[in-house]
Specification:
The chain has one domain. Helices cover 52% and strands 3% of the residues. It has 5 helices and 2 strands. A two-stranded antiparallel sheet has the order 1-2. β1 and β2 form a beta hairpin. α3 runs antiparallel to α4. The termini are far apart. Keywords: Membrane, Transmembrane, Transmembrane helix. This is Type IV secretory pathway, conjugal transfert protein.
């Protein structure tokens, strides 16, 4: 019985419990960034070497920004996706109509925070 208990006490890798990443940034956004940079380099390659180098440096800076955001909160992308499903116009006046709970923002997005 002791061997059964010891089998259940294994360390879970932190990489398995976080969203998938490439280079420390959220996977989908890192792929999109790399694709845009590659396309811009391909389009501007005949103009000389300066513009493609600037595009690559800007892509690296954007990837560093994505990496910084992911290091602060690995789930920031999923949180913003939930937030984007809500309307663009937000009335700060409390509305207690029939559909008041349907259009409530999630907690932490000016919904239930004291002013």
């Amino acid at each position: 019985m002791h061997w059964l208990l010891s089998m259940r006490e294994h360390h879970v890798s932190i990489g398995l419990s976080r969203p998938r990443q490439i280079g420390g940034a959220v996977r989908g956004l890192a792929i999109a960034n790399g694709t845009v940079v590659a396309l811009l380099v391909y389009v501007t390659f005949r103009s000389g070497w300066k513009i493609p180098v600037v595009v690559v440096v800007m892509g690296m800076a954007f990837h560093a920004l994505l990496r910084w955001l992911t290091s602060r909160d690995p789930w920031w992308n999923q949180i913003l996706n939930v937030y984007n499903h809500y309307g663009d116009v937000y009335e700060s006046i409390p509305w207690h109509g029939k559909l008041g709970t349907l259009f409530r923002r999630p907690y932490g997005f000016d919904s239930d925070l004291p002013c």
